[in-house]
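Sequence in, structure out.
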Amino acid sequence: MENMKKSSYSKDIILVLTASFFYMASPMLVTPLITGFTESIGGSAGLMGIVGGMMNLCSLVCRPLAGNLADRISKYRLSLIGAVLMTAACGGYIAAPNALIVVVSRIINGVGFACCSVCMATWVSNMLPRNKIGSGMGFYGMMNALAMAVAPAIGVSAFQRFGYRISFCIALVFSIAVMIVIQFVGDKGEPEKAADMKAGLKEQEQESDAGLIMENAAGLIRKSGKQLRKENGIQLVDVRVLPIALIIMLFAIPYCATQSFLVTYASVREINVTVSFFFPSYAVILLLLRLVLKNYFDKLPFKVFLAGSSACMLLAILCLTVMNSNIVMFTGAFFLAGGYGIMSSVCQSTAMLLAGKENRGLANSTYYIGLDLGMALGPMIGGALYGGLDIRWFYPVLMLTVPLAVLVYLAAGKQLRQKQ
C-alpha cells in the first residue's frame, strides 16, 4: 500500500511539474511579441511600454490575494482558475481589434499568471517531504527555466513564419494544456487545516462510542473555527520570508536589466557577439547546473549558496563589462546561471522552509513579490543607467546589488542564518 502511495505521489508531482512548464510557457511566448503586436494595431510607443509591463504589474498586485487563496482553497481549483484566465487572455490577443483589448487581456493574463505561479509552487512543495524541498523546488525551477528558454524561441519563430495571431494560438494551446494536465492529479492540494480536520473526523468515525464521536468531532470543529477566526484576515506578506524576497529582488535586478538591454549594450559598444545565443546558453547551463547540484540543495545551508551565487553573479557582471567576444559572453552566461539562476531556486525553497506547511501559499506569494519587483526594477534601473551614464558604467553600477543582497542576509538575523 505504501509503494502504491509513493508511485501515485511521484505521478502527481510529475504532472504538476508538467503543468508548471505549460503555465510559464504561455506568457513567455507572448512577451517578446506583445509590444510589436500592439504597435501593429495602432498602439503608441508609450502604450507599447505599458502593455509590456502590464502583466507583471497586475501579477505583483494580485500575488498577496493569490497567496492567501492558495492557503484557503484547493491548489487544483486555484490553478484551474488561473489557467482559465490565461486562456481567456490568449483569446483576447488573438481576436484583439485594437490596443484597448490588448491592455484588458494583459490585465487578465497577469491575474491568471499570479494564481498559477503562486499555487503550483505551493502545490509541489506540499507534496514533497521537508528534507526534499530543496531538490524538488530545484526541479520546479528547472521546468520554469526550460519554459522561459523554449517558449520565446517558439513564439519568435512562429511569428516570422505565420504572424502574431497564429503565434498567440500556440500560447492558447499551452494554457489549455494546463487545464487538461491538472485533471489527472490525484492530490488536489486541499488546505492543510481542512485536510487535517477531515482526517481527524475520519479517525473518529472508526470509534465505537457514538457519544465520543460527536464530542471529538465538535472539538475539532471548535478548534478549526478558532483557527479560521484567528487567520480570517488577509495577510499581504509573510514577514519571515521578506529577507528572502529582498535577496531575490536584488539578484533579479541585474538579470532583468540584462534581459532588456544586452542587445542595445552590445550594439552601442560595437561588440561583435551573437547576442541571440546568450539566453539559450544560459538556460542550458542552468539546467545542467541544477541536475549536477540536485543532491546538494537539501544538504547545504543557505549561506553556502548565497556565497557561491554572489561570487558567480559578480563574475557574470564582470564578464559582461569586459565582453569582447562570444567566449567571454558565454562565460558570462555560465556565471549568470550560477548566480541568479541557482539563487532563484534556493530562495524559493528557503521561503517554503521558513513558512509552516499551511502558510506556503503566502510564503510563495511573498517570494514572487520580490521577484516581480526585481523584474520591474531591472529594466527601469537599466533605462536610467543607459540614459544617464556612459555605457561603460552600465554593469559596474549594477554590480552594487550583490553586496546589498549579502547585507540583507546579514541583517536578517539568526532565524534565516540557521534555517537549515
